[in-house]
From TrEMBL:
Protein name: Acyl-coenzyme A thioesterase 11
Localization: Cytoplasm; Mitochondrion matrix
Organism encoding this protein: Crocuta crocuta (Spotted hyena)
Pfam families, A to Z: 4HBT (PF03061), START (PF01852)
Reported function: Has an acyl-CoA thioesterase activity with a preference for the long chain fatty acyl-CoA thioesters hexadecanoyl-CoA/palmitoyl-CoA and tetradecanoyl-CoA/myristoyl-CoA which are the main substrates in the mitochondrial beta-oxidation pathway.
Lineage: Eukaryota, Metazoa, Chordata, Craniata, Vertebrata
Polar residues bias (residue ranges): 1-10
Any GO molecular function: lipid binding
Domain of life: Eukaryota
Cellular component GO terms, alphabetical: cytosol; mitochondrial matrix
Domain HotDog ACOT-type: 33-145, 206-319
Amino acid sequence: QGLASVFSSRTSRKSAQRAEGDGAMADNGGYRNPTEVQMSQLVLPCHTNQRGELSVGQLLKWIDTTACLSAERHAGCPCVTASMDDIYFERTISVGQVVNIKAKVNRAFNSSMEVGIQVASEDLCSEKQWTVCKALATFVAHREVSKVKLKQTTPQTEEEKTEHSVAAERRRMRLVYADTIKDLLANCVIQDDLESRDCSCMVPAERTRVESVELVLPPHANHQGNTFGGQIMAWMENVATIAASRLCRAHPTLKAIEMFHFRGPSQVGDRLVLKAIVNNAFKHSMEVGVCVEAYRQGAETQRRHINSAFMTFVVLDADDQPRTLPWIRPQPGDGERRYREASARKKIRLDRQYIVSCKQTEMPLSVPWDPSNQVYLSYNNVSSLKMLVAKDNWVLSSEINQVRLYTLEDDKFLSFHMEMLVQVETTQAFMLLSDLLRRPEWDKHYRSVQLVQQVDEDDAIYHVISPALGGDAKPQDFVILASRRKPCDNGDPYVVALRSVTLPTHPETPTYRRGETVCSGFCFWREGDQLTKVSYYNQATPGFLNYVTTNVAGLSSEFYTTFKACEQFLLDNRNDLAPSLQTL
């Protein structure tokens, strides 16, 4: 969900484990990730809200604690919460049920690490279990005496390899998140109907405003005196719930928290001022903005901005269906700005949730390209290829002159993967094959290529004309997003990912049959100073399937011929120091 990790395993209904495990081996003798931490909590009346359901604030504290323990297990030193990705709450948890939380480090970088969290609820009487939410948190290791350099994680299972690989792409998206949202809000045309609404039925936004102060005491902080991130999130949820209640005059349910970053630490003795207001109310949901500032009594003249977050609430009726909400009337000036920005964020949030969280089998072949979703489409493009690469059930189908062909039948797709070693420097191979304008020089399936849009340094959109396949009378055309990535760390490959997108400037025409690719691209691994392993992956779409199976069955050698032509192209151009890719 959102940017949340997709855990393939399900929590065992007998898994009431203590908060910290015992290393890499589970109790039953099977493999267990050495950073994995599990927490099980019985929901008592003191943990619940007025509806007898677990308070989301309390749940956030438990999530943060479990994730922090996992991060500290890997780092071997204290860690603090740096950010939390989007969280979508799928269901509520009732008093008397058990909350099972599992956290593990997906990947470690220099001093930060991504922790994946899975939350499930359990009914002890019926033994039923439900997924509550999945989350991703970033923690930073902090040692007062010396700078921390974290050791790398070593993924063992297919799931761990996938999470480890995709974590680098998620980190890239987090680093540009604030600027991305700022640019999208500045450039997005926001439609609203403020002038047409019946003002007599509207609730003034100022009526929902909440301000509360909290004193940070030792129980709210870790052993270094820094306030627990989960505690701050719980206080934020409290004021946001009050603001939402003032609009709807009912008990709202928190459905989502948008990704946010902690801008700075707070310590024991700080006063935290929490402010909340309803920014906008849609038909069945509302967005509440929350801001946290810190100060020390008599020691600071200005307050420090700790963080801001946007939370989405709904009001459920007796049948658990969302009720229609009253309109909000924003204050002139900043209130109207927040109102319009909330509309833009809703659109961005839907794009992000849909594109980032969809399983590959649920993704349409072509997704409309739009400035509001380009960051998430690029993310999905690269992460989909990395997930395909991480699959561990590839089968070697053939090997001719050291060119290997592998196949994979998984998730309703037939995928193939070709691999060879080439006497070319890895960066040069990456740059040459990243340039789709040069692909017709070696790939006869690319008759012509036109650069349609240079999105940024790493992403570009091309229009590709391909000859007719088999008995087709018409040639094919493709609109392709090409996303390239350099390695995040030693051992990571260079990546060139390709997928179809839809552009209004390039609709289908009678001249060509529109072809689509859902996931394909190259990975390059450095095997030596002048030796590169070049791998090409393709998840076959229905229109391409017959052609793939013909080659896999050995009835055609076109795959082999094309890949050898690719090798010759790299060898002929390995001394080319200025390929046209420089502008990509």
